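Could you please review the protein record set out just below?
***
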Amino acid sequence: MHDWPTVVHHAWHAEMEHARIQNFRWHDLRHTWASWHAQNDTDIHTLKDLGGWKTLQMPMRYAHLSVGHPAHAAGRVTNLTLRSEGQKKKKATEVA
């Protein structure tokens, strides 16, 4: 039977050496993954759940990468307001 953690560990290091990549850890991929989620506006609670973190402390480290999030969130209310205004105008023309 294989000791899979050992097999993966050796394969990982062999590939890093073959690619001449230094100072890179498997765990670095987790940080990249979380950063990409934050940059694409995955909400912080969803990121916490996806990453398996128990508290918001760790995913909050990536929250600053979500540069468009405040504008996107504000846009939801703006879109709702515009939709509501459009419905009012439509009703007003139907009545007239």
